[in-house]
Write a sequence for this structure.
């Protein structure tokens, strides 16, 4: 293999330069195989080769290590190929090349923080065991010694990092050791500063000033970068000095720390010591006493300052003073989420960070941009601050530990936590490798392909032999950013955070004492019973119990907003127990405020929905998505029924599935109704579609049963009547129907009639008979055929010819009126067309005689006097009472009988459509039509609300204040407005009655 090909295979970029360095005399006699084997391990073999030649020039003995086996030489090549800056350090300080003598491990152990502190203090000739160490060196020699010792420690850490089997797994340990190393450097710098201050102040005064250095940001959290400003806050104390003198000396000590770390010296500075997070920022004094800090935090601090204090940790100086500072500010940190607008302010701060990124850097940002490290950190910190006030397990400083704690506590789903953790480690590793190369403070993805190629190799562990392309690196990075951004937007802007932040720590902890008092205050009538439900839901150490402990303090308040919070909490317990350990349920409530609020609303306001959810708890999943609450139309339901009929030919099994589908769709409609997604007309249509699908399914099953004993002799049609025909039913409506049949060719009328009677009897039976096991909470569809010719005395089913004969000879005006709402529901399309052709001339007569009008009025008066339940208040009966459904419908139907023959617009089974047509045609003026429309809609709403609230059908406006409150809320009134709702209904129905009497009786 040619040299050029060999260089390409090893990953070199500049072949000409590489050939020149390979020819250097420093490499004479070196085993070329060993050399190339080592260079192939380097992220940047070009950089590794150049640094190696220059190092051997400084220390020729290094050639033996470079030519040795990979077990010995691997750390050398990996370091020189990953960090040009540390290579330069070793070239400047070849006496530290012994760092390569230590044996590396694929699972390295972090250095002890105390060992690092002692090493850095000794470098400036300070005694590590002294209470307040003072350096034996000052000035440039001290600075050079300190910085050299620091960089030696940095080199040792980089070797461990680059040789770790899994760099992402080792990443948190790297951040922790970097923070400990920075803390040790500041400790040594403080020792130097004390020695230098003695030249300016009395030694006893300097010794009397205690200075605690509080690490903030990544240093405080022990997740520091290879090169980063170190954020600090200085706290001073001096018992024997006045505050002004102590502040002067403390300021000198703090300034001396920065001078020792970063001022010009033979060995370059390390990094900036940044004290801008102190109270008042750059405008405030550099050092303060503990009392001064606390006074500021109590009176003036902004929310972001408490977020910053989440990371505060003593890293150098007076540890006892630092400990007192930490204990004093900790309660302030965990109470900060309760400040007005806290969550919104944190969210706004994150947006500002993104907005201030220069346009040229936006797409290259690993730290600040969308999907970057800041998205992870802000999300995690906000969750910690909101929930950490009551859950001390969340009070950890570093991000990876916090993610693990949030996952263990159920505040983040396990899948989301794993994705967040993996993405964070990967992004931090990218940041580390980019910074390590030249030890420059940058968070930008390099632009050159060569740099990207080196980076792609650098992030891999030592056991990986591949060299990913720049495109592969960018692809993985972009995928990671998209994942982080999606998680950030879903969790960081989680609406529940605002509610949780406003809970007191006692309420959030849900302790028995706090809970009972809060339950009573919220309006629970049986706090002890409610507490038993809470204890049952939160007992134990399971993840489910942890999630319940997190959610219940919020949900209890939402349940209390309902009419019956006690029943709501009981229903919540039953639903939760029914769903058991289902992975999505509590996670959905945690992540979706809409779902959580909807569930609380329906459980505490609706007995019907609560009962249905208890027996079909999987339907709770719909609460999180408006799309899932869109009613399924008749066609889709019928297709589903047909599919199930093909797989379940047994009649009982088939009917169970058909009736379960209907129960499911009633529940879907009720939840959508409760969420305000449907108006009353849409509710009636959805319920009618569900009934129609069930009746058609039952008809098919009944015909299948009949076909078992011979051929089908007739076609059967089910015709919907009344409100069912108008598709304006409520939750408690029966199905008013008529049955029509037509004999098939080759069969006599008698044979067809007999089979048709058997089929329709079976349809009713299939829809109503109890099943084993029973369908729990089913609203059984009762089929009522009393509107057929001759009523209860007539045949249950007639042939089309029999209907024609009956209507020709015997039909009464009330039957023509009933036919106004006749709509084919299930059965033969051909028969349906024939039946409509038959009845249209009857229900839309050419002329309505005065005698017929008088008869209609007589029947209406008789209905009011005879069918209104004994003792019922006519003003409160929404169906038959004054201004109720019956008044509006009879008036509209009278107009249809009078005018539909000449005005096809009136030919509809829908009351509201006919009312609109009558208004358009001028048969009703705008005000009258508007009043009737409002009255009809409100009465329909009340009728449905009675069933929704209590689970029982009722046509009466409730007198019970609790039931009236429930009905009022379902009708759109705010809490506590039951009295106003009652007044509105009575006034509206009274006005509607006046319109009815004027137009129905006087016209």
């Amino acid at each position: 293999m040619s040299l050029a090909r060999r260089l390409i295979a090893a990953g070199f970029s500049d072949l000409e330069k590489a050939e020149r360095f390979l020819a250097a005399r420093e490499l004479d006699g070196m085993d070329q195989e060993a050399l190339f084997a080592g260079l192939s391990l380097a992220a940047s073999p070009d950089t590794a080769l150049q640094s190696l030649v220059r190092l051997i020039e400084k220390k020729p003995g290094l050639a033996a290590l470079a030519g040795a086996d990979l077990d010995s030489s691997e750390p050398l090549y990996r370091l020189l190929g990953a960090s040009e800056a540390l290579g330069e350090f070793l070239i400047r300080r070849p006496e530290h090349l012994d760092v390569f003598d230590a044996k590396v491990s694929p699972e390295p152990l972090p250095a002890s923080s105390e060992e690092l502190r002692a090493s850095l203090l000794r470098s400036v000739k300070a005694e590590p065991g002294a209470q307040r160490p003072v350096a034996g060196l000052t000035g440039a020699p001290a600075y050079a010694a300190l910085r050299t010792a620091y960089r030696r420690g940095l080199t040792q850490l980089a070797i461990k990092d680059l040789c770790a089997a899994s760099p992402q797994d080792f990443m948190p340990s790297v951040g922790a050791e970097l923070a400990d190393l920075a803390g040790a450097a500041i400790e040594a710098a403080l020792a130097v500063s004390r020695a230098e201050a003695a030249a300016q102040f009395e030694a006893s005064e300097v010794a009397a000033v205690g200075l605690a250095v509080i690490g903030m940001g990544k240093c405080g959290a022990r997740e520091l970068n290879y090169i980063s400003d170190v954020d600090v806050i200085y706290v001073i104390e001096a018992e024997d000095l006045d505050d002004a003198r102590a502040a002067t000396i403390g300021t000198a000590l703090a300034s001396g720390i920065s001078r020792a770390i970063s001022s010009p010296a033979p060995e370059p500075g390390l990094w900036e010591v940044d004290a801008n997070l102190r109270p008042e920022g750059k405008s405030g004094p550099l050092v303060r006493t503990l009392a001064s800090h606390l006074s500021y935090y109590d009176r003036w601090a902004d929310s972001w300052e408490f977020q910053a204090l989440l990371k505060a940790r003593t890293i150098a100086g007076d540890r006892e003073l630092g400990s007192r500072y930490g204990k004093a500010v900790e309660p302030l940190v965990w109470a900060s989420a309760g400040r007005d607008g806290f969550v919104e302010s944190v969210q706004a701060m994150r947006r500002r960070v993104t907005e201030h990124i220069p346009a040229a850097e936006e797409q290259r940002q690993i730290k600040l941009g969308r999907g970057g490290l800041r998205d992870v950190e802000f999300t995690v910190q906000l969750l910690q601050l909101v929930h950490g006030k009551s859950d001390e397990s969340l009070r950890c400083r570093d991000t990876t530990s916090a993610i693990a704690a949030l996952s263990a506590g159920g505040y983040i789903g396990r899948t989301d936590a794993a994705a967040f953790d993996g993405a964070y480690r990967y992004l931090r590793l990218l940041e580390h490798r980019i910074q390590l190369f030249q030890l420059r403070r940058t968070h930008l993805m390099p632009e050159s392909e060569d740099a990207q190629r080196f980076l792609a190799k650098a992030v891999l562990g030592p056991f990986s032999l591949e060299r990913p392309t720049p495109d592969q690196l960018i692809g993985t990075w972009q995928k990671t950013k998209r994942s982080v951004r999606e998680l950030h937007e879903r969790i960081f802007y989680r609406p529940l955070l605002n509610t949780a932040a406003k809970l007191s720590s006692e309420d959030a902890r849900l302790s028995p004492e706090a809970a009972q008092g809060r339950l009573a205050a919220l309006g629970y009538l049986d706090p002890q019973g409610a507490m038993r439900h809470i204890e049952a839901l939160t007992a134990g150490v399971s993840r489910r119990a942890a999630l319940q402990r997190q959610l219940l303090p919020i949900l209890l308040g939402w349940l209390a907003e309902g009419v019956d919070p006690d029943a709501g909490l009981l229903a919540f317990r039953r639903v939760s127990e029914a769903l058991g350990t289902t992975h999505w349920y509590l996670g959905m409530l945690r992540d979706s405020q809409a779902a959580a609020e909807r569930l609380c609303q329906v459980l505490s306001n609706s007995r019907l929905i609560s009962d249905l959810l208890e027996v079909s708890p999987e339907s709770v999943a719909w609460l999180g998505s408006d799309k899932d609450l869109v009613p399924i139309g008749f066609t889709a339901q019928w297709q589903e029924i047909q599919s199930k009929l093909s797989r379940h030919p047994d009649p009982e099994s088939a009917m169970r599935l058909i009736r379960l589908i209907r129960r499911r769709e009633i529940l879907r409609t009720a939840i959508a109704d409760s969420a305000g997604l449907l108006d009353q007309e849409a509710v009636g249509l959805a319920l009618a579609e569900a009934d129609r699908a069930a009746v058609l399914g039952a008809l098919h099953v009944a015909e299948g049963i009949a076909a078992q004993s011979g051929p089908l002799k007739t076609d059967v049609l089910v015709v919907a009547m009344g409100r069912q025909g108008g598709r304006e039913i409520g939750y408690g409506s029966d199905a008013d129907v008529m049955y029509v049949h037509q004999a098939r060719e080759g069969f006599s009328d008698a044979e067809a009639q007999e089979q048709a009677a058997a089929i329709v009897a079976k349809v009713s039976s299939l829809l109503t008979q109890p099943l084993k096991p029973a369908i729990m909470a089913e609203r059984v569809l009762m089929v009522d055929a009393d509107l057929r010719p001759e009523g209860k005395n007539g045949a249950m089913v007639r042939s089309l010819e029999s209907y024609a004969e009956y209507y020709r000879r015997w039909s009464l005006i009330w039957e023509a009126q009933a036919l106004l709402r006749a709509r084919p529901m299930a059965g033969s399309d051909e028969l349906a067309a024939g039946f409509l052709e038959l009845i249209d001339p009857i229900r839309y007569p050419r002329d309505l005689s005065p005698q017929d009008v008088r008869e209609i009025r007589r029947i209406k008066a008789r209905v009011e006097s005879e069918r209104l339940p004994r003792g019922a208040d006519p003003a409160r009966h929404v169906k038959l009472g004054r201004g109720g459904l019956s008044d509006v419908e009879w008036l509209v139907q009278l107009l249809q009988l009078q005018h539909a023959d000449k005005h096809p617009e009136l030919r509809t089974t829908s009351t509201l459509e006919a009312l609109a047509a009558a208004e358009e045609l001028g048969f009703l003026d705008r005000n009258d039509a508007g009043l009737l429309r409002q009255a009809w809609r409100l009465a329909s709403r009340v009728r449905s609300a009675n069933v929704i609230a209590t689970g029982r059908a009722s046509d009466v406006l409730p007198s019970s204040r609790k039931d009236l409150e429930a009905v009022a809320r379902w009708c759109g009134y705010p809490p506590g407005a039951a009295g106003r709702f009652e007044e509105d209904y009575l006034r509206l129905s009274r006005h509607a009655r006046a319109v009815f009497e004027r137009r129905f009786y006087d016209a």
In short: Residues 604 and 852 are 50 Å apart (CA to CA). The radius of gyration is 41 Å. The first strand starts at residue 210 and ends at 215. Residues 167-197 form the longest helix (31 residues).
